[in-house]
Amino acid sequence: MAQLRIMILGLLVALAGPALGQSNPFAPAVQVNDRVITQFELDQRILFFEALRAPGDLEQQALDRLVEERLQYDAAQTLGLSIGDEQVQAGMEEFAGRANLTAEQFVAAMGQEGVAEETFRDFVRAGMLWREVVRARFGPRTVVTEAEIDRALELGSATGGVRVLISEIFLPADTPERRAAAQRRAEDLSKITTLGAFASAARQYSAAPSRGRGGRQDWIPVGNLPPAIRAQILTLAPGEVTDPIEVPNAIALFQLRDLEETDAADAEAVSVEFARYFIPGGRSGAALAEADKIMAEVDTCDDLYGVAQGQPEDRLLRDVLPVAEIAGDIAIELAKLDEGEVSTALSTGDGQALVFLMLCGRTLEVNAEANREAVRQSLINQRLASYASGYLSELRADAVIQRLQ
User: Most CB contacts within 10 A, which of 48, 189, 277, 307?
Assistant: First the structure.
């Protein structure tokens, strides 16, 4: 089987063109416990992320993801779990459907970018297998009380709206070591129960621009928040803190300071249109000054096309995505904005560019009759995600990971 896999991968390389990184693309690049990651797999995952137009340091993200997948396979093997080919194919169809494509069409599009079908298949299989691991390990202990559901339904009812005052802490987690340290610190910070203690922690530990004001944010309509965060916020009492939430290159925590009901019905954002203009220089003074200059010149997302004229296409990206599919750090910033407003709180994953993030618009859906089972499942999914994050951090901390090249 191993020889057959190597032969197949060899054919894929011949079709895709020269290897990106090494003269021998099948040489082991990283060892994770008893499993290896080949240079071919690493190069392919980078190409896959490039084709998906993922932001940040794609090489590091690809390496981190592949390492995590090896750890997830170990966990699945320990529990005796596996995923069948038919299940994987269904997962590929679901993933491709997010781009309004069939799996066959998606594979063809990826092939034009040099991405082998097996790379897409492995990516989907790993994600599905990890979900099974999390359900098997944590599902029985993930309990949502009827009181929590009642509170979420009450606050999300269509008879009125809700807006919240929250504070935020973003702990840097851009390397495996910093992520492990951030996870440990986040567990402690999530136990905070006073506004003053959270504000002090934000000033000391947070990497967000809001740290100077103790992490405090202005009023935010609850419907603007990403679903995973909204589900937690609606079950908190003032002073309480969410469980740690994984976002790209950081771990986030939010404290509820106040909650206010309004006369207008809640309108939940089901999709968001936003633009990102990348300014070289990271968070340097020159880059921030350039952002201020652009902010004074533009009123709408369309105006950014004039700013980006004559520059490489990837300097300006404009997307329309369902809220659930927007990267966590971007979704959080967009929740704070009204149409035409801008955030400069984010940088790319490698820190080389400042992200000029502009909200173009939201597609809203008034929340009519909430379904108890849907609310229950939302709360369960959020808690499972928190358990999964902590478990993966434990697996990584206990693993033997060695770069071979």
Answer: 277
